[in-house]
Write a structure and sequence with these properties.
Elements: H1 3-29, H2 66-72, H3 75-82, H4 84-90, H5 93-99, H6 102-108, H7 111-117, H8 120-126, H9 129-136, H10 138-145, H11 147-155
Length: about 170
Amino acid sequence: MNADTKARRNWIIAGAIVVIAIIAVLGLFYPRPKAGDVAGTIGGVQKAERYRSEQITDKDVLLNHPEVQALLQNDQIQKLINSKEFQALMSNKAYVALLSNKAYVDLLSNKAYVDLMSNKAYVDLISNKAYHAALDSGTWQQALASQAFYQALAGGALDHGVLTQK
């Protein structure tokens, strides 16, 4: 054996001894984690504790109705669903709570309310900036709080063709 091979063998043996020493030191003196600290690690595999609900059935999903299919395939509906504004509205907790409110759902299914919302005069009124400014004014708030205002409404004093459509 020549000197070069002997030197290489000595370096390999020295390296192996160092690796064995490091493993021995870590194995004997490195602090071991407590059983509660290893949850989620390979050494601490535990059964997942999460909520499990019943599987939904065909009765729960109404996508097989032709009306729903036509609605979902409508380009305007798709644009609405994908719009940032709609996404923001649907992620608003207050709006989602409103949608689940029974009184609000009943209002939306009320024929008189649906007729009102489709009335052009009403749509023009609620989109009018002056109307919104009047609603925000303190005078309008005071009028709404006044018993005389409601008596005037009940007595027909404000019935001049604007508030009621004949």
